[in-house]
From TrEMBL:
Record-given protein name: Dynamin family protein
Dynamin N-terminal domain span: 58-274
InterPro entries in UniProt: Dynamin_N, P-loop_NTPase, TRAFAC_Dynamin-like_GTPase
Natural source organism: Rhodoferax saidenbachensis
N-terminal signal peptide: none
Length: 652
């Protein structure tokens, strides 16, 4: 039987934990051998944080009554021996629900009241105000209490049509999407806007985040879901009914919220759920399978995706099979096929991306640290030549040698003014970079966009306003790319000059590339486009909706800018630390040379002793270089979960 998603995710978690531990041990080893400068330490810290805190989000999206919550129970929570997420007939998940784990927060369910939609803050801002959420503590060891508490995500309340309109659930322009009106003229809406579930489930502890979304009406009313949460999910499972196929509302969700012109369709899995409704005692297994295959082919054609991205399962039978240990029923439910697709596709891709980032970081780290070792080797070679030149010489020659070293040291210290001038220009250009991508500049851009959206009436020119905003943001990244190129050219010229004058081996690090951030901007822009067409013109006429849309946009843009600035900062630190390391090593070298001459002057046998010491230090440096290569090679090759248990490298 194929490895389940849970098992594959567990392997991924083990790989991450052991990799992070190895990074930490490497850092300690480097510190013990005085190889840990500021840039290397920062690079190690970022790599360790990235591998430890890597989150994997799986979003489950469907119209009501497609068996979405049952699917989550079957794939992730069958180990509890019962349903955890509410999955009875009819509507169950009424508000978007995120399940994850934060060690700093006790196990609990936090619910954001639906009334917060009447206020301008985006969801991300409400997350920063825990006191505004209703909190219910959870007992993870009591499945009954856990399931009972989670029933609250299905709660609703009755409001007037005007209240429903203010909350975003009633649109006169689209009456077919409006909820039912009861005999008293009241409308049923979700009681909660968003739910956060924090439990120490083994998969959640390892970084899995599950997003359970409600139907089309609720998704459309919460722009942050479409423009932020769903686009950032590493896998989206879109669930349809095997008996109904693709309905009109299913197609609306797919076209409006899941597909953009450059969407990564590999991260989209379409699941035809409830195939057990097609199981028929009057039909042969071959006839049933033919019917399922026709539905899969039809679904793939309508949605415009390859047929192998459509998987037919029965979540309910799969859950029952897991709870009752019925292997035959589990196989018949086809749930393992979905788990394998999630594990092999999403997890394999995720680990590949993470491993690639680790490889790049480790290679840079090895290059920077290897440069320090080479400086030490070169300094030892110079000392050795200097001392061997003193063999057989009298005291006056030795005294003259000491004077020459002192003079070299004084000249080197005078050259520090030139290095300080280079740093000043470097910092001035960096300040310009930080002002372009800083929070103040972004706030000004968002204020300008908000002004365009807040004009009264239908805002048919809003697409143009968005386009101009993103053009300016892309232009800012291009400006920063140009500035970093200018800084790199200046550093390269200065480093060449210093190398020539002082025998350094400085090499200007490659400037950060911003093409990836431009691509991120393009993806964010596309995720907003669905709100800018004629279909949403009436929604955009509501100031509250426009404001929420801009706030959601601001949150994502801030994240892109912060990542770009972090890359610039690490690059800058790398250049500065390289210079600092070589200055420090050169000053140490002067001190060691003077100390050696003094020892030779004080004792006749001091020269031979010092030569022998340098030979021993050279041998130790060679061993250090070999060990560095061994440790970093091990980390670079440890890309598969099994690799960390197959090889062991001694840290000494």
């Amino acid at each position: 039987m194929a490895t389940s998603f849970n098992e594959q995710f567990d392997q991924h978690g083990t790989w991450r934990r052991e990799f992070a531990l190895r990074l930490k041990l490497l850092g300690e080893w480097m510190k013990d051998h005085e190889l840990l400068d500021a840039a290397v330490e920062e690079r190690l810290r970022r790599l360790e944080t990235q591998v430890r805190s890597d989150k994997v989000m799986v979003a489950f999206v469907a119209e009501f009554s497609r068996g979405k919550s049952e699917m989550i129970n079957a794939v992730f929570f069958a180990g509890y021996g019962r349903r955890i997420m509410p999955a009875s007939a009819g509507r169950t998940t009424m508000c978007p629900t995120e399940m994850g784990y934060d060690a700093d927060v006790p196990p609990c369910l936090r619910l954001l009241p639906i009334e917060t939609r009447l206020q301008p803050q985006a969801l991300m801002e409400w997350r920063m105000a825990p006191e505004k959420w209703t909190r219910i503590d959870l007992d993870v060891n009591n499945p009954q209490q856990l399931a009972a508490a989670l029933e609250k995500v299905a709660e609703t309340r009755k409001v007037t049509q005007d209240e429903a309109r203010a909350l975003g659930f009633w649109h006169n322009q689209a009456p077919e999407d409006n909820p039912m009106v009861d005999a008293q003229g009241m409308v049923e809406v979700p009681k909660w806007r968003h739910a956060l579930i924090n439990i120490a489930h083994p998969l959640l502890k390892q970084g899995l985040v599950i997003l359970d979304t409600p139907g089309l009406n609720a998704i459309g009313a919460e722009p942050e879901l479409t423009v932020s949460l769903i686009p950032q999910a590493h896998a989206v499972v879109f669930i349809l009914g095997a008996d109904t196929g693709v309905t009109k509302s299913d197609l609306s969700i797919w076209r409006e919220h899941l597909i953009t012109e450059s969407s990564d369709t590999d991260a989209r899995l379409v699941v035809l759920n409830k195939i057990d409704t097609l199981w028929d005692a009057l039909s042969t297994p071959a006839q049933i399978q033919a019917q399922i295959d026709r539905q899969k082919a039809s679904t793939a054609e309508i949605l415009g995706i390859p047929k192998d991205q459509v998987i037919a399962v029965s979540a309910q039978k799969g859950l029952v099979a897991k709870v009752t240990d019925d292997d035959a029923l589990l196989k018949q439910s086809c749930l393992p096929v979905l788990e394998d697709a999630l594990g092999r596709g999403m997890m394999g891709k995720r680990q590949k991306i993470l491993a690639s980032a680790m490889n790049g970081g480790i290679s840079e780290l090895r290059l920077e640290t290897g440069r320090v070792i080479n400086i030490r080797k070169r300094d030892l070679t110079e000392q050795m030549m200097e001392l061997k030149g003193l063999q057989g010489k009298n005291a006056s020659v030795i005294k003259h040698m000491r004077s020459r070293i002192s003079q070299e040291q004084a000249e080197f210290d005078v050259g520090g003014a030139k290095i300080h001038a280079v740093r000043s220009v470097h910092l001035k250009l960096l300040r310009e970079v930080f002002s372009i991508l800083g929070s103040k500049a972004l706030k000004a851009e968002m204020a300008q966009l908000t002004g365009a959206l807040m004009q009264k009436g239908l805002k048919l020119g809003v697409k143009k306003a968005y386009g101009e905003t993103f053009d300016r943001l892309r232009g800012n990244l291009q400006k920063v790319q140009s500035l970093t190129g200018e800084i790199h050219t200046m550093l390269a010229a200065t480093f060449r000059q210093l190398n020539g004058e002082y025998g350094f081996s400085l090499q200007a690090p490659t400037e950060p590339q911003f093409a990836g951030f431009v691509n991120d901007l393009n993806l964010v822009e596309r995720s907003h486009l669905q709100y800018l067409g004629i279909g949403n013109a009436f929604k955009l006429a509501q100031p509250e909706f426009s404001d929420r849309l801009v706030r959601a946009l601001s949150t994502r843009l801030r994240g892109i800018h912060e990542h770009a600035l972090a890359d610039v900062e690490l690059w800058s630190k790398s250049a500065a630390a390289q210079l600092d390391a070589q200055l420090r090593e050169r000053r140490r070298n002067f001190a060691r040379r003077i100390e050696a001459i003094d020892r030779i002057q004080q004792a006749a046998g001091g020269l031979e002793d010092r030569i022998q010491e340098i030979e021993q230090q050279g041998t130790a440096l060679n061993q250090l270089d070999v060990k560095l290569s061994e440790l970093t090679n091990y980390l670079i090759t440890a890309n598969e979960p099994a690799a960390l248990t197959e090889v062991d490298v001694e840290l000494a």
